[in-house]
Amino acid sequence: MITSRTAKECGTADFGWLQARYTFSFGHYFDPKLMGYASLRVLNQEVLAPGASFQPRTYPRVDVLNLVLQGSAEYRDSEGNSVRVEAGEAALLSTQANVSYSELNTRANQPLTRMQLWLDACPEHENPLTQKMTLPDAKHFLLASPDGKNGSLQLRQNVWIHHLDLKPGEQISLPVRGPRAYLQSIHGQIDAQGSVSHESQKLACGDGAFIHQENSLTVSASTPLRALLIDMPV
Fold first, then answer.
1. What does the pLDDT read at residue 125?
2. What's the CATH number for 2-232?
3. What distance in Å separates the CA atoms of residue 142 and residue 40, rounded to the nearest whole number?
4. Which segments of the protein form a coiled coil according to its record (predicted)?
């Protein structure tokens, strides 16, 4: 089964210094039916004004994945750790109890655009506090995984995050390991088809889709496409 969630259905915010779109309940946006999906707690796309910042705050026990689409960000914690992330790079923060985290747009004359995901972290797993990777120029690569396979960022949860970068007319079929996955268009138009239901959904820029009980998913691009497939077996 494939159930779409369009960008227009998502929660939004415009505080001047911050513009945001929320797939699931976050901040002032609350929908009791959309508190997350499996271990995916948060999926936000946010634009920070030049020089803007999020002040230090604590998190629940989650892995925070930041994918920078435009500009430059710096992430700091109250223990003195920091990582700077440019467009075309991703960073993973393994949040800790009693540690606060902040985010800064390091550019004084350019907005920062990024996607942020929160994933529940298993209590018995510990990873490096910060990880960073440069995104390869590839049609498909593994962005994050439980074991850091193929140089991917290592999560504290059984989740596999695939990054897709397709040209118009290209398609790719990916296995889905478990009962649930989530497909997100970063930009571009998608035709997604499941192998079990044979259902097909068309997604536009910013749209997403809940994937349920499909063994594999075929993604076709009708425009230049950048997308994430978040595979969550549990």
1. 84
2. 2.60.120.10
3. 17
4. none
pLDDT in tens, 106-126: 999 999 999 999 999 998 888
pTM attached to this predicted model: 0.96
Average pLDDT over residues 205-209: 96
In sequence order, the 6+-apart residues with CB closer than 8 A to the CB of 132 are: 83, 85, 89, 90, 91, 92
Considering the chain, what percentage of its residues have pLDDT values greater than 90?
A: 94
Q: Map out the domains of the chain as residue ranges.
A: 2-232
End-to-end CA distance of the chain: 17
Secondary structure of 94-157 in HEC code, one letter for each residue? ECCCCCCEEEEECCCCCCEEEEEEEEECCCCCCCCCEEEEECCCCCEEEEEECCCHHHCEECCC
SS3 state at 233 = coil
